[in-house]
Amino acid sequence: MNVSYDFSGKVALVTGASSGMGEASAWSYAKAGASVVVSDINETALYKLAEDIKAAGYEAYPVVCDVADDAQVAAMVEATVAKYGQLDMAYNNAGIQPPPAEMADQQPEDYRRVMGVNLDGVWSCMRHELAQMRKQGSGSIVNCASVGALVGGKALGIYYGSKHGVLGLTKSAAMDYAAQGIRVNAVCPGTINTPMVAKMLEEQKEAMDEFMKLQAIGRLGTADEIAQAVMWLSSEGASFVVGASLAVDGAFTAN
Q: Is the pTM for the entire model greater than 0.90?
């Protein structure tokens, strides 16, 4: 059962919006009454999402952006404010994974690519989002971390390292801006039924079997379940939640 929120008159920005948790969150913001700026590097899927949201009677605006490029991130936030005049909520969701490998076998190009999106991208997004929210004196940011931000994992050092970094950025920004009316938090999803995880299930079956043994609930999470956590963290219901790392993981980190 989904909880209802009223974000009428608010503007939300979602990166990595064309599929999975980003797509589910974009729909949730829209259904709650927000005008939603959806962003992704996949132009075709992004424009389809925006059209689908508008066809359902909600407000959406697509902006193609590679979050690893700070200039594109700046333009994305500028386009949001030019279109709607404000930015109230942001879900920094865009992320990628490298091929699994022990650290001695990991490649510098994979490291740079993943850090560029998962860590540098979150930093760039927050930098420009916070500049706008500081002008307004209000706002809420949710960063997508991972259970991999809370634990270690075999053959996943690059990905987990990037997500640990997201928590450091989240907590530090939360301390910088809490007194200015801006809340910054992170959601830490477990193994969720998304296109990325579907690919992992196909290509890394043994590793995923081990992951599922640790997810005590005994099933994959859904993108909508993560979206509900994002909605709560974005809402006034979480008004005293600042700098938090919310695990939504079917008891994975309870081990």
A: yes
pLDDT tens per residue across span 185-208: 999 999 898 877 676 666 666 666
Is 159 labeled as catalytic in the residue annotation?
Answer: yes
Vertex 193, ends 192 and 199: CA angle to 5°? 105
Which is nearest to 190 in space by CA: 218, 158, 169? 218
> Is it the case that residue 51 has pLDDT exceeding 70?
yes
pLDDT of residue 201: 64
Q: Confidence class of residue 57 from pLDDT cuts 50, 70 and 90? A: very high
Contact status, residue 185 vs residue 242, Cβ threshold 8 Å: yes
Q: ∠ at Cα 172 (170, 177), nearest 5°?
A: 95
**Residue from 5, 58, 61, 159 carrying the catalytic annotation:** 159
User: Token pair for residue 235?
Assistant: 């809402």
Higher confidence at residue 208 or residue 98? 98
CB 192 within 8 A of CB 221: yes
Q: How confident is the model at residue 9 (pLDDT cuts 50, 70, 90)?
A: very high
Q: In what order do the strands lie in the sheet with 182-189?
A: 60-64, 35-40, 11-14, 89-92, 139-144, 182-189, 245-248
Give yes or no for a contact between 196 and 149, defined as CB atoms under 8 angstroms apart: no
Encoded amino acid at 63, one letter: V
